[in-house]
Each structure stands twice: as C-alpha cells, then as structure tokens.
Amino acid sequence: MMGHAKGITRREFLGALGWGAGGAAFLGSQVSWARPLAGLASAGLRSDPHFFLHVLFDGAWDQSYGFDARPLEMTRAGLLQNYLGTEPSLWTGANGQATWASPAVTSALAPYKSDFSVVNGVLMSASQDDHLEVAAQALAGASKIENFMPLLAGSHTPLGTVQMGFFSSDARNATELVDLDPNGALALMEKYRSGGRPDPSSPLHRFLTARADALSQGPGSLSAAARELVAGFERSGDLVDKIQSLRLTPPSPPPPNGGPDLLPGAGDPPVDVERFSEFAFELFRRGAARCVAIRPRGLFFDTHAPESAAGHPKLMTQAAEYVATLLKKLKDTPFDSTRSFFDLTTLVVSSEFSRTMRQENAPLDKTGTDHNALCNSVWLAGKRIRGGLVIGESDFRSLTEALSPAHLRKDPRRLKFMARPFDFVTGRARTDLPAELKTEDYIGFDSVVNTLYCAYGVDVSHHRKLARSATRAPLLDALLKT
Amino acid sequence: LAALASAPAQAGFRGYEAVDAIVASRIGPENGQLALSERYLPSTLWGLMGSYQSNRGETRFVNGRPQALNTSLYYTLMTSFAADLAQHCGDAAYLGEFLHPAFVETIMAACVDADWAWKDETRLTALWLDLVSYDAPYEELTAWRDFLHSQRAAMRTGADFLRLALPSALLNPYFLLRP
After folding, report:
1. How far off is chain A from B56, nearest CA to CA, in Å?
2. Which of A84, A259, A387, B64 could form a disulfide with A115 if both were Cys (CB 3.0 to 4.6 A apart)?
3. What is the pTM of this model?
4. Contact status, residue A92 vs residue A73, Cβ threshold 8 Å
C-alpha cells in the first residue's frame, strides 16, 4: 500500500484518475478526494485498474481429475472410470470446507493454494448439454443477449474485451468482443508501420465518419450497424496508438492452413501461456483492453472416445500447469512500483461443463465420457477474490450416498454427479435431497457472473436473473474481499 | 435450417470475402483474380474483418459487428489499395496485372491529367459507379463529389486524387455494411 502525506499533487491526482501508478490504495487514503472520485467512477472514469482474465478450457473437462475427484473405491465398484489410477487427496479450504483433489492438478497448483478458490457444484444447465449452447448461456446469460465480459470491461479502452478462440458472438454487445491474438497484433503493428494507419484528423477519416453518421440516423438494422461504425471510426485513432505501443515477442509459426490463428483444435500445440500472458498484460498496461479471454488451443477435453478419455488426466495436468504458470506470471509481473498484475486482475478458469463418470454398456477400463451439464468447477483468483476457499459440492461422492430424486430424474442411469443444493446464507452445500430441481437451490454460472459484477461495480440492473424469475441470482459472498 | 443457423445474427460488415468478390467483379480483370485482402493484408488479419468460421459443426459469421479494430482494418485495406495505385500511377503494365483494362484506362487518364476529374462531371459519376455501383443511394454520390471538390486544392496530382477518391468511395457504409 502506498503511504501519502495530507496534501496531494496535481500529478498524483491525475495519475489516480488514469491507468498509471496510484489507484485505489491511493484514493482510499485520501478521504477528501474519495467522495468526488467515487462520483467520477460511476460516470465511467474508473480510477482503479481492474483487469479480467478468463481461461475457458475447450470441450468440457472431467472434474474427477480436478478439484472434484472421487476416491478409487468408486472405480473399484465400477461406477467411475479413473485412467490415472491414483487416490485423490483431501483439499481443505481456508473456510474449512474440503473436496477430493486429483494429483493431476494438485502438483502444479498446490503452491498457489492460498491464491485461488475452487467453486464446485456449479449447475451449468438443467436442460442443455451442447458445448456451444451451454457456453453461450454461461457467457451471455439464458437470453444470450449480454455477454458478461464487456460489462466488466466498461468503455474505457478501444478494444474492451479481447478473445482468442471460438466464443459466442451473438450477444447484443458482441461489438465489444474482439478476436485478436499476439500474431494478429504483430501483423497489425507491422501494417500500421508500413502505411494505412487511420488518422482521425484527416479529411478522409472525417468524411467517412460523417457518412456513417448520416446513415446511422435511421431506424433500421443497417443504421444500427452504422452507429457501431461511427464508434469504430471514432475509436480507431486511440486503438492504433495503443496497438503501436505494445511490446510483443516475435510471432510463432503460422498454422498449417494459413488461416486465422484463432481456433482450437485437437492435436494443435497448446497456446504458449507465456506469450498469452505477455500479450494480455501488454493490452492491460497500454490501456488497449481490460478483459482478455482465451480458449487455449491444443487442450481439447471433449473425450468421448475411450482412447481420448485415457488421455484426460494428462490434459488436466496440462491445464493445471497452464493455470499455475499464469498465476506465477500474474504474481511476478509488476504493473507499477507497488502492484503486480495479480493485485489488479481477476482470473476465472472454467470449462463448459463436466463429464459423465463413464459410458453406459462399456467396460470401465475402456470407456469414454460424455457431457454432464449438471455440474462444473470454476476456479477464481486475483483482485477482489478471496483465495484458498472451497465452496460448493457435487453429490455421488461415495458408494453409499443416497442421490436426490431431483438427481435421479435428470440422470436415471446414475452416470453423472450433480451439483448439491447450496445455502447462500451459510455459504455451504445443503445436505437435503430435493424432490425437484429448482435452479434457485443451486450455484449456477449466473451466480458466479453476478459475483464478478459485484467485484467490478457493474450496475445491479445488469445482474442476471434466475430462470423464469425476477429474482437476481444470489452472490457467492464468501468469495468477495470486502 | 443450415442456412438459418449460419445466417449473421446482426447487421454489420459484409465480410472480407464478400467485399473482395464484389470489388473483383467490378474492377478486377476478366481472367484473373483481384483479392484486395490477400493483396494488402496479412492472412492473420482477414478473419477479423468478418468471416464465416466453423467449430464442431456450427458455422457462424464472426467479427462482423463494426468496432474499432475491424473498422481500422477496412480503412487500412482501402487506403493501402489506393496508395498502391497512386504509387504506380501511369504504370499501365503493373496496373493491368490485377485490374480490368477499362478501369486501368480510367486510372491512367486520372494519372496523366491532374484535372481529369474536374473537366467533366460525368467522370466522377462513372468512377463512383465503377466502385460502388448502385449499392448506395444518390445522396452518397453527391456527398462524395462534394467532398472531392472540397479537397481539390490539396490534390495536386493524379496520384493525390486516387489516394482520396478511391477509399472515400470504397469505405462508404452502404458498400461495406449489410442489413
């Protein structure tokens, strides 16, 4: 924390308003300034850098190799495939709640145990289990019209949210989701250097903006697009300045097909996490974007076939190493003289949903795994997030456990584990066995998003509602640092 | 159903492939191919200007909603095209490699005579129709002509004229956007 004398200089004040050194610690220590600046913050002039990183592992991971593992007795009883064959260990959170954790993830992530929290028993969907459908609902809500990341990003940066990978683009605010990877940014910088750099002060640029503005005055969809085009022209100068200020390492080899280096695919080498973090931090540091999301290429978890399911433990190990490296980079990379990127960035790690314990009618040593949207794990860390916690649970954690009628209705063949109902007041999983699945009884991704909204000060009018209800999805209060 | 699934959800840029194809059909050579994006931008950037991408059986039109990045890319694309023509103003052989002979003739005329556009008002209209055709309403043509007239003092050579006339037509929103 920075210490300050009573008086503050003009430079300190202006610094606090912008992206440079200062920020919340500074403002918090200056009571007389804090009140007017709070007003400025609500007007969009945020003084406290708060970035967001989202890692979305592609294809739905198997939690039983993660932080929602099961003892081997489940495997010996023929219920749960376990190609790792190693007993999980107990992972106890600072809040006293515990989960079984697979060695596939603990070896890489144990050093960061106090930095991140695990939310288990996240009900992704009670009715859908299609990858893109569930991912779109998670990212943009049940109505799929408002992606959560642009709301975290606000309107302070020309790029808003940068994403790498195949994300839902249908949301109403999709304009603020920009596909760009380090290779694309480098190509752009080179192109700007060699000419063709937009110049907002030029007569040509002003004329084009005026023509787009003229078209934007109408009521139709073309006019709506023209309004976005006007905004695009108006922000392009700022964008070019910030893109040109990025300091990036040289590009990696292009993909074999020569196309955009954006899509994940089985067999691709994993995206270099070092390069990704460097890119994200540069975008943050230069004020080009506030949110960066990635579906890492080469880590493809959709292991339906037995052969690919056998490789799932390795995938989870790679995912854990990816996240551990990212945490290390966040902590080791200074944003300014007093704060690291970990101090200023909230990190969320998730996948579309989880996987079944086995496939029906397949021997346990030769089974693949299918989709399970009744459960998921989400890992959170960084700014405004309390680390070291375990929150929520799934069911079917032992041979003798009675499953709820709600579970058996959704999973009559007992192939899945499912989120347990959650008491949002006590912050603990409930032990009752509901007869019916009511989404308000469970941690949904909407609760995770609303908790993020709270952490970022997003207006409550944007908070997601529970399905077919006017009630806002409850917050995971325990996660939030006060 | 497949067509519905792949339809763009919102109005936005036509996408780089559509723009390339339209420009090629209007001013490209009959037996060749003019692909502006390929010619003036690295492949890494094409998909960022609006394109169809597939993932596990689902195809979507992505990056088509205008924002700062794709807007700047279209700007860069069209100004690079104009700069190339301006740089080779008068080099009919070079221009003929990737442009239709009739369009080369127009460019050559503009390059040889700095006042070419101002001697006959129909020339500007013809150039507009070569580039934009009837994609934009008449008011856009008049606005474009007025703009060029307003910049006449700054356009001392044919190359100057090309640098301004081509992108100010090809970046017209009626041409770039689709409902």
Report:
1. 9
2. A387
3. 0.87
4. no
Reported ipTM = 0.95
| Contact yes or no for A330/A285 (Cβ under 8 A) | no
Q: Which amino acid is at A262?
A: L
HEC secondary structure over A333-396: CECCCCCEHHHHEEEEEEECCEECCCCCCCCHHHCCCCEECCCCCEEEEECCECCCCEECCECC
For tokens 């020309």, the residue is A158
Chain B residues in contact with A178 by the CB 8 A cut-off are 48, 63, 67-69
The closest of A437, A446, A375 to A141, measured between CA atoms, is A446
Instruction: Say yes or no to pLDDT of A57 above 70.
Output: yes
Distance of alpha carbon A189 from alpha carbon A184, whole angstroms: 9
The highest-confidence range among A6-15, B49-58, B117-126, by mean pLDDT, is: B117-126
Nearest CA in chain A to B59: A166
Q: pLDDT digit string (tens) for B13-53?
A: 999 999 999 999 999 998 778 999 999 999 999 999 999 98
Q: What is the 3-state secondary structure (H, E, C) of A205-227?
A: HHHHHHHHHHHHCCCCHHHHHHH
pLDDT of A250: 80
Three-state SS for B55?
Answer: strand
Give the closest of A169, A191, A233 to B41, CB-based. A191
Distance CA(B21)–CA(B30), nearest Å, equals 13
Which of A 150-169 lie inside 8 A of B, CB atoms?
Answer: 158-160, 166, 169
Q: Where are the alpha helices (DSSP H) in A110-145?
A: 131-140
Q: H or E element: which one contains A293?
A: strand A289-294
Amino acid in position A336: D
Which of B169, B177, B179 minimizes the C-alpha distance to B18? B177
Tokens encoding B1: 């159903």
| Candidate from A132, A220, A229 with C-beta closest to B66 | A229
* Rounded Cα gap, residues B155 and A104, in angstroms: 67
Average pLDDT in the A130-147 region? 89
